[in-house]
Every structure is written in structure tokens, then in C-alpha cells.
Design a protein that fits this description.
By secondary structure, the chain is an all-alpha fold. It is built from seven helices and no strands.
């Protein structure tokens, strides 16, 4: 509301920096956990359609400002740099969490103008921190319906990340860890996934057309109704262990024949 007022009249409401400072004051002190996130998703779902659509557009503006220029933590009067960093991270993760709650309802991808192709990756790495085992931060679960087209995410840790419906057209994910990632209906048109680890990933209804999938690992990945038109699968690994490869769209028949041949047990030697 405040941002919308400011857009209509610069003398009223808040700009993005003022809105982020207010957001940080509310969401910075305590990190959001999965239970609170589930509660928020239920509450958002109770709101009118027009309301959470407006929220998603506003959140994309705030995410864009936070990632491109940082959070305005100096406005909060915190007593240490470490506390500024901690609360900034909590607030930024909260932006992703609420965006995901809205996006999962609208199924819409809103434009975000990243400052450079590496801006999102650098920002997200700060939010995810160093893992200690397989458990993910909340941020990994909140990447659905984000506009990440053209982003450079090479060798990114996206283990078990939720990327359903995200726009990754032309993105570079070379060597990325997408093991067990959820990529249902994700747009990966023309993406670079050379050497990526997609073991057990859900690629159902994903658009992988014209994607560079050379040397990627697809063991256990689910390709149900995925679009593989003109995708380069040269030297891809684990296709014989992939699921529903025969139910993809536009897969080169020669590739499928080669996979089927690899699945035929070789006769035992005496």
C-alpha cells in the first residue's frame, strides 16, 4: 500500500528503501522457520486474489532492491555490524518466503531486473550460508516462480531446492547441484546444465528445449511430460535409470533407442 501510494505520488508513502527498512524492523530480529512459513502460506491463501497478486508485485520490487543494493540496515540503529548482518539475512529470507507464498497461488513470474547476471547467485549464497549436512535453509524452499532468466548460477548448491515454475531461461547452471531438486514446470529453455547433478530431480513438465545437458547426471530424475526438443544430451549420465523418459515430449528418438539398448541386460559369459 505504501509503495503503491509512493508510485502514484512521490510525496506520499514509502520508496523501496523505506519499505525495506520497515520490513527489516519487523522480520529481522527472528528468523522465519518452516512452521511459521506454513502458517503464512495458509493466511495468504485466505486473502482475495487481487490482494496477493499485488503483494507479489511489491515483493519483487523489494527483492530487486535488496539484492541489487543491499538492505538499509543503517536506518535501524543496531549496535553492531554482526547484528546488522544477522537481521538483514532474516529479513531477506522473509521476502523470499512471502513471495513464494504468493507465487504458489498466482503461478505467475514477475520481472525482476537483477543488476548483473551474478547478482542473484551472490545474494542467495549469503542467505543459504554453509550447510552442515543435508538439511536446507528455508530459502531453498522459496525459489518457486522467481524470475531467474539469464542468471549465472554455476556450481550453485541447489540440493533439494524448490524451483517449481521458476523462469531459468538461458540461465547458466554448469556443474550446479540440483540433486533431488523440485523443478516441476520450470522453464529451462536454452539453459546451460553441462555437468549438473540432477539425480532424483523432479523435471516433470519442465521445458528443457534447446538446453545444454551434456555430461549431466539424470539418475533417478523424473522426466514426465518434460519438453526435450533440441536438447543436447551428449554423454549425459544415468538416463537408463531416469523415470518416464519415454513419456517426454520431443525427445530425439535416437536418444531414446540408445537408452533402451543400454537397459538391456548383457548376456553372462561362461
Amino acid at each position: 500500500m505504501e509503495l503503491a501510494d509512493h508510485t502514484r505520488d512521490p510525496d506520499r508513502g514509502w520508496d523501496e528503501r523505506q519499505a525495506l527498512a520497515h520490513w527489516a524492523g519487523i522480520c529481522g530480529p527472528t528468523a522465519m522457520d518452516q512452521y511459521l512459513h506454513e502458517f503464512i502460506k495458509r493466511e495468504v491463501a485466505l486473502r482475495p486474489d487481487s490482494e496477493y497478486r499485488d503483494w507479489q508485485r511489491t515483493l519483487c520490487r523489494l527483492i530487486e532492491s535488496a539484492a541489487n543494493y543491499g538492505m538499509p540496515m543503517e536506518r535501524l540503529g543496531l549496535n553492531s555490524f554482526a547484528e546488522m548482518l544477522r537481521q538483514s539475512r532474516n529479513a531477506e529470507e522473509g521476502l523470499l518466503a512471502l513471495h513464494m507464498a504468493c507465487g504458489s497461488l498466482t503461478k505467475a513470474v514477475i520481472e525482476i531486473q537483477w543488476r548483473s547476471s551474478t547478482t542473484f547467485g551472490a545474494w542467495f549464497k549469503r542467505l543459504q550460508g554453509q550447510r552442515a549436512g543435508p538439511e536446507n535453509t528455508l530459502a531453498h524452499s522459496c525459489l518457486e516462480y522467481l524470475n531467474l532468466a539469464g542468471c549465472v548460477l554455476d556450481f550453485m548448491d541447489l540440493f533439494a531446492a524448490r524451483l517449481n515454475g521458476a523462469d531459468l531461461r538461458g540461465a547458466s547452471l554448469e556443474g550446479a547441484i540440483l540433486w533431488n531438486a523440485q523443478c516441476h514446470e520450470t522453464n529451462l529453455l536454452g539453459a546451460n546444465l553441462v555437468g549438473a547433478n540432477l539425480r532424483d530431480a523432479d523435471l516433470s513438465k519442465a521445458d528443457l528445449s534447446k538446453a545444454d545437458l551434456r555430461e549431466a547426471n539424470f539418475s533417478g530424475a523424473d522426466f514426465l511430460y518434460a519438453n526435450l526438443a533440441d536438447a543436447d544430451l551428449a554423454r549425459a549420465h544415468g538416463l537408463e535409470q531416469a523415470k518416464n523418459l519415454d513419456k517426454t515430449r520431443n525427445l530425439d528418438p535416437e536418444v531414446l533407442d540408445e537408452v533402451k539398448k543400454a537397459m538391456v541386460p548383457r548376456p553372462k559369459r561362461d
